[in-house]
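Same chain as my last thread, 351 residues:
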Amino acid sequence: MTPDDIIEDMIKDFRGEGLGRRIRKYVGGLLPAFCDFLLEIPTPGRGFSNFDAFLAEYPLITEGVSTLTVRYGKGQKTIRPAYERIHHFYIFEKKRLGFPRSPPYATGKWGDYRHWLDALVTFSEEQLVEVRERAKQFVLDEMEAVVFDPSLVRVDPPVFKLLLEQFDFRARAKGEPTGAVFQAMVFGFIRADAPHLQVEARKVRAGSARTKGIGDIDAWEGDRLIISAEVKHFVVSMDQVATFEHFSHEIRQRAALGIIVAEGFQNGVREAIEENGLIALAPIDLLGIARLWDPLKQRAALSAFQWVVVHIEQSPGLIERLDKFLVEIGYKVASTSEAARAVVEAEAVKE
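reply #2:
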């Protein structure tokens, strides 16, 4: 067989062309492995007439092995390392991910190609290199590269994390109820963190007793209270810990998870709250958890937060303040009216 004959035969097996042929894509790696194996021994210029003549000098080892393995010097030599290299080249370097990932099986089929070896042991170094490179190029041309394109990835900002970090919860627009945005933020957090529960939101300062709730925000599984949160948009002092006793009692009776979410806690207050079986959380604690959320969960939290702002609190000033913030962080695009108003405001500042 000439180099052209071997390449043609390999192509037919690779594609499964011809009567009775099965698709054997692994031959695209086996043939280059044969060439490297014979180049490393080396066989060019040794005068071998066929593969049997080669085996007369390098006896075949069959016990305990299934791949082509011969006695070489004081040890042995196998085609497996050469096949592993070409296998790595196709899949990991050239991203031909459809190439078979079965080196043991492929090298175990070497005996089906003794007719190639009969010719290959007679080839010169140049011919072996030619066959190897033509075989590799055929596989690269035949198989499409599967390359990840990062430009197609949609980059979603961690929007709820940004809200916790950058939104001014202490500022208030005209007519905006005190603490409304802080309580909406806590609702958004709980709603996203516990999507399996039914979470109730109330208008700020509505009073849980008047609305037949336990805390400012309650999360239920059917008729069972699972989580209840009292929201305090201020720094809790030691004197105020006693005001949580009723809440703590209700939580213990229902075996629920009780949370006090506040802007902050004076020294020793966290510990005093937790001695009553409650959990004390500040925005920095919520931020630490939200950092671990994926973009979908970040959006779910923001969506719940917006729902309270728009449908529960219904404060135009707060809605406008939130919209402006979302535009500033690049989460949404300003409407025409918002963009025009921004230009007017910018011009007024210049004057």
